[in-house]
Structures are given as structure tokens and as C-alpha cells.
Amino acid sequence: MVTGLGPQTTDRSRLRSVSEGDVQLRHYVVHGYRRAYRIAGEGPAVLLVHGIGDSSATWVDLIPGLARRYTVIAPDLLGHGASDKPRADYSVAAYANGMRDLLGVLDIDRATLIGHSFGGGVAMQFAYQFPERTERLVLVSAGGVGREVNPVLRAVSLPGADLLLAALTLPGMRQGTGLFAELVRILNTDLGQDAPELLNLVDALPDATSRSAFIRTLRAVVDWRGQVVTMLDRCYLAQGMPTMLLWGSRDSVLPVEHAHGAHAAMPGSRLEIFEGAGHFPFHTDPARFLALVEDFIETTRPADWSRERWRELLRAGCGVEAELQLASERSAT
Q1: What was the pLDDT predicted at 17?
Q2: CB atoms within 10 A of CB 226
Q3: How many CB atoms lie within 10 A of CB 57?
Q4: Catalytic: which of 190, 279, 283, 331?
Q5: Rounded to the nearest 5°, which phi and psi values hold at 28?
Q6: Mean pLDDT, all residues of the chain
Q7: Which residue among 46, 49, 58, 124 sits deepest, i.e. has the most Cβ atoms within 10 Å of its Cβ?
């Protein structure tokens, strides 16, 4: 169970002033590949992990607020944004390793992880692989909870997806998809909540190298049947790990039912639903998102990991409920 500290009073006169101009994109070469990241602030570390096809730019409106109290690190995952895009391992486990190594070169031992979508899966994997380095988890519309995923992403996992993505960047096709996005928005569909953001992800794949990295990353977690990686078989290990789930009620990519399933499977977790929001609740209501994150960090103790407790949980969890095993594919990691 999570141990709460109770409400704390913050001396606002000591809060640092951080502007978007203070949050510059930096680079560090790790294992021969250039990694782009943004960093700002001082204090306990908070690592922001973006979703598939996105970049650290998705957090730019949030970073200045968080950096008033914390050291905020927002990387561009390998294969995304301004980071290198090699022919490499783009699995969730490999990304967790990459986050560990980036924190290592920045001389940061432990962090609270905030992961969005695919980045939520990376955050959960990081906590599984490196529990001693994880203080808290904030999972935002996170992948890896259930099989369901938007049919478009299932289609992009199929052979020939590179040609489809390339076609979507053509001027005539882009205009058509823009009109479709406006139509589903006017019709007030769930997809209409997310269509503009999803089209921005397509625009962020301007060349074959970017599209190849996107497809390799997607195929590591999604096939034609849906998501292939799950956290349900290991979520019992989250006992003692402060965890908060944030989800949009109208998420068209990963349904809000996943939030309730993860909340039930992670005793002691907090659940906050953004009514009317889609897959990007931190864009829909950044003020509420920031307030929830700050309150969560200030009212919970960092996870206190011990080898003995980890061993006890593993042994007790050997008989994982059959329902969880049948809910989705077992993860190989």
C-alpha cells in the first residue's frame, strides 16, 4: 500500500521562475547515438517519457511549471524527435535501458517517472527493471494495460505500412485527412478529440528514416490483433510503489476502461479521469494535470525498495490469477 504524507504547505516564495525559453533542447552521445533531451529546474528528479511518434516537445507547456520544484528531464526517445534514428532495438525493455543510461550520464540516481501512452509502458518497464531507481509512477493514457488499441495503429503494424505513412504526408492526402479530422471533430466523436494530435504525429515523420523507426517501435508492442505487451502479469510488484493513473474519458487510442483495469490491479494507486478529454489530457487541461502531479509527489513518500521484499513479492506472485493471464498476451520480458 502507498503511504501518504498528508497535505503539505509549500512556501511559494521559494518557487523558482522558469520560462519556456529556459527549457532548451540539449544532446548527449550515449553508446554512440545522439540523444536529445530537455532539462530544467532543481530538486527531486522527474522524468517525462513521451509516446510513440512524439517527442519531448509534447511536454513544453508542462515543464516550466514542474521545474519550479523539481529537476525535470524530458528526452526524445531514440528514433524520435531530434535523437538519432538507427536500425536498432526499439523494444520497451531497450527504451527502459536507455532511460537508465541517460539518467546515469546526468548523474541522477532516482526519479519519479511520468509516462504517456507508449511512454507509460516504458515507465512501467523501467520500474520493473530498475525498482531501486524509481520513486513514483504517473501513467498517462498508458499502453501495456489491455489488448485494445485504435484500429489505425493495428493497421500500421502490418506489412506495407511505410508506404501508407509516406502517402499520408503527400500534400493532397494531408488535406484530405485534415478534412476528415475536422469532420469527426464536428460530429463530436471520440476520435475527433484526438485526430488533430494524431495527425501532428504523422507530420513529425517527414522522411523514410523517421517512418522506419516509428514502425519498428510500434511493431514491438502492437500487431494486427492489438497490444502484445502487458503489465498485468507483473503489476503485483507495484505494491509499495506510489502510482497515479491519469486518463481522458474519451480516449480513442487506449480506452478509459484500461485505466479502471489498471487501478483495480494496482492496490493503493490513484485514479483521475479527465472528463471529455482524449488521449492527451495534459494538453486538454494542463493546469489540472500539473496540480495533480504536484500534489501526488508532495503527498507520497518515494518507494522504499528492498531486495528481500522484491523476492517475497515474486514468490507470492508465482500464482498469478488465470484471468490476468487470459486478458492479454504474456510479456517476454
Answers
A1: 64
A2: 18
A3: 16
A4: 279
A5: -145, 135
A6: 81
A7: 124
CA angle 253, 143, 134 (to 5 degrees): 145
Q: Which of 117, 212, 269, 331 is an active site residue?
A: 117
Which residue in 251, 252, 263, 328 is the catalytic one? 251
Joined grid coordinates for residue 285: 487541461
Beta strands across the sheet bearing 25-30: 25-30, 33-40, 71-75, 45-49, 111-116, 134-140, 243-248, 270-274
Q: Has 304 been annotated as catalytic?
A: no
117 is catalytic: yes
- Please state whether beta strands 222-223 and 33-40 pair in parallel, antiparallel, or not at all (unpaired): unpaired
Sign of CA dihedral 322, 324, 329, 330: negative
Length, in residues, of the chain: 333
Q: Could you say which DSSP state residue 33 is in?
A: E
Averaged pLDDT for residues 249-268? 90
What is the crossing angle of helices 190-203 and 171-186, to 10°?
Answer: 160
Q: 108 or 205, which is more confident? A: 108
- Quickly state the pLDDT bin for 306 (edges 50, 70, 90): confident
Q: What is the pLDDT of residues 194-252, one digit of tens each?
A: 656 666 666 666 778 888 888 888 888 888 888 888 777 777 777 788 999 999 999 98
- 110-144 tens-digit pLDDT: 999 999 999 999 999 999 999 999 999 999 999 98
Whole-model pTM: value is 0.83
Q: Which residues, in sequence order, are CB contacts of 113 under 8 Å at separation 6+?
A: 46, 47, 49, 99, 123, 126, 127, 134, 136, 137, 138
Task: For residue 332, count CB atoms less than 10 angstroms from its CB and return exposed for 0-12, middle for 13-18, buried for 19 or more.
Answer: exposed
249 is catalytic: no
What's the CA dihedral at 14, 17, 22, 25 to 10 degrees?
60
Cβ contact 135:127 at 8 Å: no
The region that residue 76 occupies, defined by phi over 0 for left and psi between -120 and 50 for alpha, beta otherwise, is beta
